[in-house]
Design a protein that fits this description.
Elements lengths: L2 E8 L11 H15 L5 E10 L10 E10 L2 E12 L2 E7 L1 H6 L7 H21 L6 E5 H17 L6 E6 L10 H6 L17 H8 L2 E4 L2 H6 L3 H4 L3 H6 L4 E3 L26 H15 L9 E5 L8 H10 L6 E5 L4 H13 L4 E4 L4 H10 L2 E4 L9 H7 L3 E5 L2 H6 L7 E3 L4 H14 L3 H13 L5 H16 L5 H5 L21
Parallel strand pairs: 1-2, 1-6, 2-5, 6-7, 7-8, 8-9, 10-11, 10-13, 11-12, 13-14, 14-15
Antiparallel strand pairs: 3-4, 4-5
Helix pairs in contact: 1-18, 3-4, 4-6, 10-13, 11-12, 11-16, 14-17
Bound molecules: alpha-D-glucopyranose.
The site of alpha-D-glucopyranose has 14 residues, from helix 1.
């Protein structure tokens, strides 16, 4: 008999409906990869839930339910709509809190707190409304982590409830805004946890604490968050959870990102036809108004402009290496200070730098196909997706050895790797790359090695599937850990009732 595993997959964004960052890539491609693992023994029924952000066109969506959440004495209305993604059901939740915020992520913490608390709780309620029972609630980042917490609260109230939860960490430093009062207003008790005191009112730590399994998006990141430098204050908590903490590397959508078929490229190519690839470089130089020259190493950056990404390190480093021959194509928007620093560099070196501060998926693909080297000097990088796409497109990555970058790029085999987050280390790696570049045969070996590496989802999706299977068979009871903790609930917000009484 075929076993069916039902998974409710919650995210703030998912391609192709809406994408701001890497979470959107993963939430768009992992559920499809999981569904494809279905066979005669196990069928994975994965259903994605997203907020109906203002930018999503609701036209073709089918209304499926209207329901309300109890908030104190008030009933808060929620609406659910259904669409699909390659045959996979995708639900969209709407409500006043979602309509009020406008953008996917707002710089206004209050709006974001309202929106994502509402979204997490409404998404958790949705299965009851559509008469479908998940085995697993799969949450992603702080925006949806509260669903794991609320799921546990429901489990405590109803011993027959057998629904497990997973929280995947894509970007730990974003722990979410203070939702202490919101918990109270939605009648969610504050649990007695072994979290640090300050973390007990933040959605991400609460979700991590309540979840049956925690997944970091690469094995190295899973190890890094056990330490102060990357643990965001939760390192001790993670050290207590190593039995349920997993590192599963993200994959990329190898159908969409395929240089043989990508319609954004001037010329399609594969690893056996690298001269065809070279035409994309000339076309990119021309498109950007850079001197057209196959012999100048063309460096690319495709990135959110965020201190996380270490763009400042690259900008400073390049300025110091001005005597060397290189060109730079940088595509990315975000932090105004970083954007300004990039523009200043372009002003100072107008004949070798082009900065495009916007979101442009087509230009991104042309950079992967045309640049010789992709720079990713990240301060931290839970997984990183650009380096994998770059390798698939024969663009050699130069990365800092952190998180997923460490797991996917190997010095002298597929790219260039440096360790310390500073200009000196970055420049040493860049010098190695620029020195090797004229050796066409050696460079092509790097390109071909990268192009031959399998970055598809299959292996990683299988690891998630194995985890789903294990969780569907047995639930974790995190309060056991908390019962042993020294923390006394009465020290905390006395007016909030602890979830369980004794023991402390
Ligand atoms: C976040 C992380 C990035 C990761 C992505 C998807 O954007 O910063 O490293 O690849 O999430 O998991």
């Amino acid at each position: 008999m075929t076993q069916t595993i039902n998974v409710l997959f919650l995210a703030a964004e998912a391609e192709p409906f809406i994408k701001v960052g890497g979470l959107g890539d993963v939430a768009g491609s992992l559920p499809r990869a999981l569904k494809e693992l279905s066979n005669n023994e196990v069928k994975y029924d994965i259903r994605v839930v997203l907020p109906l952000h203002a930018a999503i066109k609701a036209g073709s969506l089918k209304p499926v339910s209207m329901f309300s959440l109890q908030r104190g004495a008030v009933e808060v209305q929620a609406e659910a709509y259904e669409g699909s993604l390659d045959g996979l059901p995708v639900y969209f939740i709407n409500g006043d809190a979602i309509r009020a915020s406008g953008s996917v992520y707002s710089s206004n913490n209050k709006l974001d707190a309202e929106k994502y608390v509402f979204f997490s709780l409404a998404a958790l309620e949705l299965p009851r409304q559509i008469n479908w029972t998940p085995d697993i609630i799969h949450c992603n980042d702080w925006h949806t982590a509260l669903a794991a917490y609320s799921n546990l609260v429901e489990r405590w109230g109803d011993r027959k409830r057998r629904i497990a939860s997973i929280v995947t960490i894509h970007n730990l430093p974003f722990l979410g805004p203070d939702i202490g009062e919101k918990l109270e207003s939605y009648n969610l008790p504050l649990a007695s946890t072994d979290l640090p005191h300050w973390a007990r009112i933040l959605p991400m730590p609460l979700g991590l604490w309540a979840s049956d399994a925690i997944v970091a998006v690469s094995p190295t990141y899973a190890a890094e968050i056990l330490h102060e430098e990357f643990g965001c204050g939760l390192q001790e908590f993670f050290r207590n959870r190593t039995d349920t903490l997993h590192g599963i590397l993200n994959g990329i959508d190898t159908v969409s990102f395929d240089p043989q078929t990508d319609s954004a490229l001037q010329v399609n190519y594969n690893a056996d036809d690298l001269p065809a690839r070279a035409k994309n470089k000339l076309a990119l130089q021309e498109l950007l108004g850079l001197p057209v020259n196959p012999d100048v190493p063309l460096l690319g950056i495709v990135s959110r402009m965020d201190p996380q990404k270490g763009i400042d390190i690259a900008l400073k480093g390049l300025r110091m290496l001005k005597k060397q021959n290189w060109q730079l194509a940088l595509l990315g928007a975000g932090d105004p200070k970083l954007e300004a620093a990039a523009r200043k560099l372009q002003e100072d070196f107008p004949d070798r730098i082009r900065i495009e501060t916007r979101f442009d998926a087509k230009l991104a693909r042309r950079i992967y196909a045309g640049a010789d080297l992709l720079l990713m000097p990240s301060r931290y990088e839970p997984c990183g997706i650009s380096q994998m796409i770059a390798m698939r497109y024969g663009c050699v990555p130069l990365v800092r050895a952190v998180g997923g970058l460490h797991d996917t790029v190997t010095e002298a085999e597929t790219g260039f790797v440096f360790v310390s987050a500073n200009v000196k280390a970055f420049n040493e790696a860049l010098r190695r790359a620029l020195t090797l570049f004229p050796d066409r045969a050696a460079w092509q070996t790097l390109q071909k090695n990268g192009m031959a590496t399998d970055f598809g989802w299959r292996a990683s999706a299988q690891q998630y599937a194995n985890l789903y299977k294990r969780l569907a068979e047995g639930l974790r009871e995190p309060y056991r850990a908390a019962e042993n903790s020294k923390w006394n609930v009465r020290e905390d917000k006395a007016k909030l009732q602890p979830i369980y009484g004794g023991g402390e």
